[in-house]
Amino acid sequence: MSRKLESPVQTQMAVAVIRSPIGGEYHGSQRQPAGRRRVFVQTEKGCVLGMELDRGDNVHTVKRRLQLALNVPVEESSLTFGDKVLKNDLDAIRNHSPLLLTRNLMHRSSSTPCLSPTGRDIQQRDKSGPIEILGQSNRLDRMKHMVKDIVKAIKMGIDPVPVNSGLGGAYYFRNSRGDSVAIVKPTDEEPFAPNNPKGFVGKALGQPGLKRSVRVGETGFREVAAYLLDYDHFANVPPTALVKVTHSIFNVNDDVNGNNFRRNRLVSKIASFQQFIPHDFDASDHGTSSFPVASVHRIGILDIRILNTDRHAGNLLVRKLDDGIGTFGQVELIPIDHGLCLPETLEDPYFEWIHWPQASIPFSEEELAYIGNLDPARDCEMLKMELPMIREACLRVLVLCTIFLKEAAAFGLCLAEIGEMMTREFRRGEEEPSELEVVCLEARKMLAEREELSPRTDLGDDEFQFDIDCEEVGYDSTPKMALDDPLTRATFQPALGNGYARSPLSKLDEGIEEGEEETEKNQNYQKSSGGKADSGFIVNSSSGHRSANEQLPASVSFVKLADMTEDEWTLFLDKFQELLYPAFAKRKSITLGQKQRQRLGTSCQF
To answer: What is the pLDDT at residue 235?
Structure first.
């Protein structure tokens, strides 16, 4: 075993996503007859089976095959595809799609076992190779050679190595020379997932996870989405894909108590697969002053687009560029771990870079041109094509944040100002909506007032599951503070400690002096290491190096986006854009006031 694998600086946690069998590794028919499709069905306990669908197959036949192959109960279960619950017809399912079999609420049992086939039966039954890439993007071509080399290494007896750090299961996969070339994270070994190897279990796939707005088992496709959205490798996200991988190294728990059930037999899993990038350390081990402005800006631009809720220093890898040709002391930043981006509702993001001096430098012309060319509608179409399981709620967050970025950059705001407008504050022990959320609340209020003139009729379409299901057995939904019907009560009014409730719009109406004072207090509070609010929520702390893994108390949800119809969503975006420029002007005034106060200095104080 290479000593490099034990190095503490090589703790890159991969997560990835995508879909389509790799040339040479898929043992089934590469060119399928018309009407035939290959799909991958995963149970909520993590068992996976690849199967060929004929034109006449339906949901019932898929369940029956799954029951025979994996010996899993399928009574009172539903076959889901992203937001959709499949009734019986499978015509809408594309080739290489992943499906999830979930137990219905009344019949869900945490003790129901998933009895996987033994030996090589699973590969014989679903006609799979050791690794299959799920996805159609031509950007995955660069990974095919890597996969072939890993498969060759596995056949040579070079096994993967488990990663000891982190809350979820992850594995270094090596090439034929024994070098780590990829990190694989099975979706059913995520924190709280059924087969988590580190004791963090208790939920089925599809239930609210570490972040309420990111479901268990769904961080993988978010990793891939971040890679696919990083056009032209602008932010330097490593190549990432979703794979079906079969190996005996993976963990299977014998019960929900998290006891390891190591059988040393082949197990197939859906997993993220990310190229391992050799590096020297992460951003927490290196002074940030040497980080290139362009690198910080590019990563920040991506983080804002995808509303990254977990950009801490540990997932910014640093690689030295000392090649002896005028690059002494220069470094390269590599952003990883994007599994907590694109939440289903607006969340409080965590941007490690928000107080770095590089973030306060204006965007370059090249960066402004890149931002100006972003097209959220094109992004959504691309993601729906490449990741058909992605939820509509995630796409709406992407659209909203991309519009916000484009308009803010055009107005002249810098990266730090944009990040601050997206970040929530604590005042008098209460978490308040961010400036971005305040604008959204006002847009929803305007939409609700318009709807009063033409009341909306309930759709009653149970085929879509946009909202996080909070009513699973044993799940405490008390942290949820979003309104059940934001259209009729659009302005969420958090009560302060004295019981007085105010409109969140008053946050934008406060005087500049008060805004400066509160912002200064908040920044000083955030800079204190390990600062905690009275409510128990951990505050974003740049110097404290707080990861989302530590922010276990659920964050409140002020704004919902996925409950709107398409017409309402279009109207909401129009109102949202109308309200942005007053908010930008307010933020600019606060920033100018802060700079003016800083110029006064404190040299006369004794």
So the answer is: 98
